[in-house]
Amino acid sequence: MSGTNPVEKAFEKTLFASRWLMAPMYLGLVISLIMLVVIFCRDIAYYFPKLMTMNSEDVILVALTLIDLTLAANLVLIVMFSGYENFVSKLEVDSADRPGWMGKVDFGGLKMKLIASIVAISGISLLKRFMAIGDARPINETEMYWMVLIHLTFVASGVLMALMDWFQAKSYTSRK
C-alpha cells in the first residue's frame, strides 16, 4: 500500500489513469473492424454475380477468403473486448447476447486465442496458395518455402506458449 507521501499518491493516480490512453487504440480497432466488414461485403458483391460461371475450386477459394476475413474480424473483437476489459475498464454491458467468454479471458487466455487465430489465418493463406498450384501462374518455390516455414513457426510458437502456460499453471498449483 502506498505511503502518505502526496507526491507518491499523485504519481500513482496519474499512472493508474494513464490506462485510458489505450481507449483511442480500441476505437481504432473498431474502425479496422468496419474496414474488414467493407472488404467482406465488397468481395461478396464481386463474386456473387460470377457464381454461375465459377468452378468448385474457385468457390472454395472465395469461401477461404471470406473465412480468412471472418477470422481476422474475430481476432480484432477478441483483442478489443479482452484488451479493454483487462487493461482499461470493465465493460458495463448487460445484454442477453453478451458472449460468455467476455470478462473471463485473462492475458494468458487472450494470448492463446491470438496465436490460435494467427495459426488459422496463416493456414488458410497457405491452403489458398496450395489450391492455386494448378493455375496458369507458375508456382514460386521460394515463396512456398517461406510460407510453410512461417506457418510452422506460428504453430511452434503456439505450442511453446501453451507449454509455458501449462508449466506456469502446474508450478502455481504445486506451490499451494
Automatic annotation (TrEMBL):
Q: Could you identify this protein by its name?
A: UPF0114 protein H0485_02850
Q: State the family named in the UniProt similarity comment for this chain.
A: Belongs to the UPF0114 family.
**Compartment(s) where it occurs, according to its Swiss-Prot or TrEMBL record:** Cell membrane
The UniProt entry lists the main location of this chain as: membrane
Entry keyword set: Cell membrane, Membrane, Transmembrane, Transmembrane helix
Membrane-spanning residues = 20-40, 60-81, 114-132, 144-167
Q: How does it sit in the membrane?
A: Multi-pass membrane protein
Q: Does the keyword Membrane apply?
A: yes
Q: Which Pfam families match?
A: UPF0114 (PF03350)
